[in-house]
Design brief:
Two copies of one chain form a homodimer.
Chain A: H1 2-30, H2 37-44, H3 48-51, H4 58-81, H5 87-104, H6 106-114, H7 121-148, H8 157-169, H9 183-196
Chain A binds a DNA duplex through helix 1 and helix 3.
DNA sequence: AGCTTCCTCGATCGAGCGTTCGATATAACG
DNA sequence: CGTTATATCGAACGCTCGATCGAGGAAGCT
């Protein structure tokens, strides 16, 4: 009994994960409101009504995609940050983690950034909290960076945080993972752009040069 | 005759502009696919069928919003750039123009950045071209900046361009025009963040500090 | 007056949507 | 064997949507 229940439990979870992956692709391609549950049923090879055994509504489906994906990003980030002392290195890890996750899971990340407004009520509230959690981690790192590098007050921390997320999240609008620029290099470009700026230290002969 | 025709022509254009403004607000609030022509008819005080005298389809309505708005941004930018020699000043003008337009016309700009994928076929093609036109202007300015300031190759020009647009376009996701940060200051923050970076020149005592 | 053009409207169509419901197959448990 | 839980399905309901159509009103011209 215990074995079979466990078995069906994992099988259930596996099928759910598969449905979420396919749904993320469809939502990413056609947009949440323009995508139909029937699209999902066709691509998943399941009947329309059979899908509702795995989620209660289309909106819950959208929420599960966003919640699980962002949670993965956040836990992966916290794991990588363990034991790191340098503030700048923390920031570098954050950018690489974010951009890396983006390129590996483009569909889900696109749904997160593009279909956030499609959530309402309780789902919206819970997702807002999770986003704040992530944003706070980033902002605290920026605070450390500013303290330990005597970085000037170029911009308020919240503006800088939003600018950084803008740079990173906008990737979905132009970047294709199989392009000339590998992901690691793209992440490094964005990291250096944000920390050192486009003009950088080249104008004065003091010669700081990242990495 | 000529007078009355001109009169009705401007009245026609005025009503169309008013419809586009209201539609932009609705699309911005509910999203393109979730907003209905009936919503527009209610808020505009016109009958449902009467609206179709001013546009052929819902998608053409979306296109007109995006096309007219982005065209305004582009022509305003080119006008402001006339006679400016300094590359950095050109970049500064671009950022201020873009951010300024964003805050003054939040709904339409949000529709441009958020509902670009909702266009298809011919409309999509024409909008893609216009976006490229705008992006090219920006990229050329960045090329000038890099040449005339001996800025290092922190990132490829297209990556830098996309990063800059990411910073600027992401505004719609967090900024509210009536907040603590005035628009001009926000634009200046983003300009300095992009050119000089978050850490900036503070680490080395050479002391460059943007104007 | 008659004619034409611009503009607006109510009524309606056909299609697609999310969701529900009852039936059914399978398999493990008593 | 009977019972129960798990999982899947076809058919249908109720609703909203974008778009169309023909009828009209208002205003200017001949």
């Amino acid at each position: 009994m215990a074995e079979s229940e466990l078995q069906t439990a994992t099988e259930h979870e596996e099928k759910l994960e598969r449905l979420l992956t396919i749904a993320a692709e469809i939502f990413s391609e056609k947009g949440y409101h323009n995508a139909s549950i029937r699209d999902l049923s066709k691509r998943a090879g399941t009947s329309l009504s059979g899908l509702y055994y795995y989620f209660a509504s289309k909106e819950e489906l959208l929420f599960m995609i966003q919640d699980r994906s962002l949670r993965k990003v956040l836990t992966a980030l916290r794991s990588k940050l363990e034991g790191v002392a340098s503030a700048e290195e923390k920031l570098r890890i954050l950018v690489h983690n974010h951009v890396g996750f983006f390129s590996e899971n483009m569909a889900a990340m696109r749904v997160i950034t593009h279909e956030y407004d499609s959530l309402q009520g309780e789902y919206r509230t819970r997702m807002t909290e999770l986003r704040h959690e992530y944003s706070d981690v980033c902002q605290e790192i920026l605070r450390e960076v500013r303290r330990f590098t005597s970085a000037g007050d170029v911009a308020p921390l919240n503006v800088a945080t939003s600018a950084l997320f803008g740079m990173m999240n906008w990737i979905y609008a132009w970047y294709t993972p199989g392009s000339n620029v590998p992901v690691e290099r793209l992440a490094e470009h964005l990291y250096r752009l944000f920390t050192g700026g486009f003009i950088g230290p080249g104008r004065s002969p003091s010669g700081r040069r990242a990495g």
